[in-house]
Design goal:
about 70 residues, 1 helix, 5 strands
């Protein structure tokens, strides 16, 4: 899945159709700008649903060093 992550590690964009991404953007070449056409300032991170099984609750996580880490508290 494609995640758009801000400077603090918060997920601000999420695209979960992994099959579509593999077909249309091989080798993790998708960019947030392929889907979101405004100046977003986000960094692309690719994680599989196996690596981030709680992606539906993404607001409770930050992305740190390419991994989903649950927020404290």
């Amino acid at each position: 899945m494609l995640l758009g992550v801000d400077k603090e590690g918060n997920v601000r964009f999420l695209f979960t159709d992994e099959e579509y991404l593999r077909k249309k953007y091989p080798e993790n070449s998708a960019k947030v700008s392929n889907f979101w056409k405004h100046d977003h300032g986000l960094v692309e991170v690719f994680l599989s649903k196996e690596e981030f099984p709680e992606y539906r609750d993404y607001r409770n996580y930050r992305i740190v060093d390419g991994k989903a880490v649950k927020n404290a508290g």
